[in-house]
From TrEMBL:
Family (UniProt): Belongs to the Mediator complex subunit 24 family.
Biological-process GO terms, alphabetical: positive regulation of transcription initiation by RNA polymerase II
GO molecular function, a single term: transcription coregulator activity
Chief location: nucleus
Keyword Kinase: no
Pfam families: Med24_N
One GO CC term on file: mediator complex
Subcellular compartments: Nucleus
Record-linked InterPro entries: Mediator_Med24
Keyword line: Activator, Nucleus, Transcription, Transcription regulation
Organism of origin: Ursus maritimus
Protein's recorded name: Mediator of RNA polymerase II transcription subunit 24
Length: 695
């Protein structure tokens, strides 16, 4: 828990300060509940598990501090005397704080009490779900129906997520959903209860997958075990951000006789009746093929719009899951159509999105429609943005998607990026909304575009205090995908600036110093955290392949790299700045090679070549802002090493660089030599001794 030599109390305090900032500025609804549960349940529980003893009280926000201290006391992190003492300090501080009227206060303040009360309810629901569903399905239905009312579901899910019970929660609902797929001959009431249990469990699982990620739903793979219906449907048929579905996938095309009977049932002149032997999972799998038949009939004039309205009313009128499955396929289908072919498919989505105004609906219909509409809004968001279509989803009781469609329409994304950076630079911190916009821009423009344009903004800044602030802000923004940003920054952007003499002027102080600082921070952060494995974000997005870095920086030192050829073509003194083979072998030898570090790893390769470039620049006869930049970069490395980051990126620096560095007045000291040399190696000690002797 030392977090890179940060004292534990300070580390805990910073975590909670971040929690309170997130809590205060989160949009009302699901996001706020997540922050509340994380702050008051997850964090105290984590400290308790780590046996961390800390005293902390953030000076923020109403009685949130009291709730936080009480939870710490429950977990044994604070004594009663400490709680009393901190609360007394808090009361004294609040006397001088501006007070809002009680009415205003109630509207903007989160309520941790609700989350804390929801925690034991989660445990009770899990126990209820363990019972035999066949014995008392009506009682179980009553419990689930009440879970759907108001914000109960999101409260319970947030509490479950914060206490590590969400996976268990989801597993029990998958088991319930699977139980309802085995329907036999039964009375009308039993058929109705089974339909409702199927529908509620299906909707809840969709909501969990969209809110907390589909990985929460997936079971541990066990050979021979049958995969539950919902898992199969979610993996193959459910639209998610970044997942492109194939509308012709076999999962969408079941037994044709089942499709025909479903079409006949939907096209019935009266409201769709519940069939006692209806297997709802089969209906969900058949609905896509049924929708295609209905669309074709509409396109060819066989069905009028009034018939389509009646069919969509039948789809969403009893079991909302059918509408969700229908829209899931329509979303995949619309992506494959031309601009002039989309109208009827989008119109059908629009028809399915709203509730059915009828008295002849099953129990808890209003509550189920609220969740259905929220699920459909998430499902359709990408395709609606791409097709510039607007669909109004019912808003009563539904949290709007807080960070969706944040980008202003019809504005170039580069303008949005520069404006957003200027705003956060002026303000001095990055709020949640800005982070989501930056994330969207990173996703849309790609890592190189994103990093390159933000570095350009940094290099335009001439006010020293603003450049230092910009470094801290950019470092926090780059944490959206630090590994990939670092590869681009160190492997492409810096070499481009250092080898192109027309760009050297941009590296002058203060922006050059700031960029050097940012580059070192990113390098150290990525190197200390990476294990040679792709992050989940990397797997989601298409990234530069490892081979791209190997072709840019080949593994064989006998083969001149692109980078070194580039250097030699840009320098008068080609003997100094050509490939490693043009110099003695020792000139590129570094501690990392003696430690046999894996050079197939892109980050290791990029670092090794950056330090080769630095060594070449230091040894060249041409001085300028680029040589000054290299000095700042090395000074920042030394400063960070003195702060406890020893034994990281400097192992990639060629040993010959040491003798070049000590020629720079600011770095000509035994302390610097010892800091930048690997003294665990015999060769490192020899190099250090020789350099110190030459001082």
């Amino acid at each position: 828990m030392q977090g890179g030599h940060i004292p534990t109390p300070l580390f805990v305090l910073e975590i909670w300060k971040a929690c309170f900032v997130g809590l205060i500025e989160s949009p009302e609804g699901t996001e706020e509940l997540k922050w509340t549960a994380f702050t008051f349940l997850k964090v105290p529980g984590t400290w308790e598990q780590q046996s961390t003893r800390s005293s902390s009280g953030s000076q923020e926000n109403c009685d949130c501090t009291k709730f936080l201290l009480q939870e710490c006391s429950k977990q044994g992190l604070l004594s009663e005397a400490s709680v009393t003492n901190l609360m007394a300090k808090r009361a004294a501080d609040r006397e001088h704080a501006p007070q809002l009227k009680s009415g205003e206060n109630a509207n903007i303040q989160p309520n941790p009490g609700l989350i804390l009360r929801a925690e034991p309810t989660v445990t009770n629901i899990l126990k209820t779900m363990d019972a035999d569903h066949s014995k008392s399905p009506e009682g179980l239905l009553g419990v689930l129906g009440h879970m759907l009312s108001g914000k109960s579901l999101d409260l319970l899910l947030a509490a479950a997520a914060a206490t590590g019970k969400l996976k268990s929660f989801a597993r029990k609902f998958i088991n319930l959903n699977e139980f309802t797929t085995h329907g036999n001959e039964e009375l009308a009431k039993a058929a109705s209860v089974r339909a409702l249990l199927f529908d509620i469990s299906f909707l809840m699982l969709c909501h969990v997958a969209q809110t907390y990620g589909s990985e929460v739903i997936l079971s541990e793979s066990s050979t021979g075990a049958q995969v539950p219906f919902f898992e199969t449907w979610m993996q193959t048929c459910m639209p998610e951000e970044g997942k492109i579905l194939n509308p012709d996938h076999p999962c969408f095309w079941p037994d044709s006789t089942k499709v025909e009977s479903l079409v006949a049932l939907l096209n019935n002149s009266s409201e769709m009746k519940l069939v006692s032997v209806m297997k709802w999972h089969e209906a969900c799998l058949s609905i896509s093929a049924a929708i295609l038949e209905i669309l074709n009939a509409w396109e060819n004039g066989v069905l009028a719009f009034e018939s389509i309205q009646k069919i969509t009313d039948n789809i969403k009128g009893k079991v909302c899951s059918l509408a969700v499955c229908a829209v899931a396929w329509l979303v995949a289908h619309v992506r494959m159509l031309g601009l002039d072919e989309r109208e009827k498919s989008l119109q059908m989505i629009r028809q399915l999105a709203g509730p059915l105004y009828s008295e002849n609906t099953l129990q808890f219909y209003n509550e189920r429609v609220v969740i259905m509409s929220s699920i459909l809004e998430h499902m359709c968001a990408d395709v609606l943005q791409q097709t510039a279509t607007q669909i109004k989803f019912p808003s009563t009781g539904v949290d709007t998607m807080p960070y969706w469609n944040l980008l202003p329409p019809k504005r170039p994304i580069k303008e949005v990026l520069t404006d957003m950076f200027a705003k956060v630079l002026e303000k001095g911190w990055v709020d949640s909304r800005s982070i989501h916009i930056f994330d969207t821009l990173l996703h849309m423009g790609g890592v190189y575009w994103f990093c390159n344009n933000l570095v350009k903004e940094l290099l335009k800044e001439t006010r020293k205090e603003h450049t230092l602030r910009a470094v801290e802000l950019l470092y926090s923004i780059f944490c959206l995908d630090m590994q990939q940003v670092t590869l681009v920054l160190l492997g492409h952007i810096l070499p481009g600036l250092l080898t192109d003499s027309s760009k050297w002027h941009s590296l002058m102080d203060p922006p050059g110093t700031a960029l050097a600082k940012l580059a070192v921070w990113c390098a150290l952060s990525s190197y200390s955290s990476h294990k040679g494995q792709a992050s989940s974000r990397q797997k989601k997005r298409h990234r530069e392949d490892i081979e791209d870095y190997i072709s840019l920086f080949p593994l064989d030192d006998m083969q001149p790299s692109k980078l070194m050829r580039l250097l030699s073509s840009n320098e008068e003194d080609a003997n100094i700045l050509s490939s490693p083979t043009d110099r003695s072998m020792s000139s590129s030898l570094s501690a990392s090679q003696l430690h046999t570090v894996n050079m197939r790893d892109p980050l290791n390769r990029v670092l090794a070549n950056l330090f080769l470039l630095i060594s070449s620049i230091l040894g060249s006869r041409t001085a300028g802002p680029h040589t000054q930049f290299v000095q700042w970069f090395m000074e920042e490395c030394v400063d960070c090493l003195e702060q406890g980051s020893r034994g990281s990126i400097l192992q990639f620096m060629p040993f010959t660089t040491v003798s070049e560095l000590v020629k720079v007045s600011a770095m000509s000291s035994p302390k610097v030599v010892l800091a930048i040399t690997d003294l665990s190696l015999s060769l490192g000690r020899q190099v250090a001794a020789k350099a110190i002797a030459a001082l």
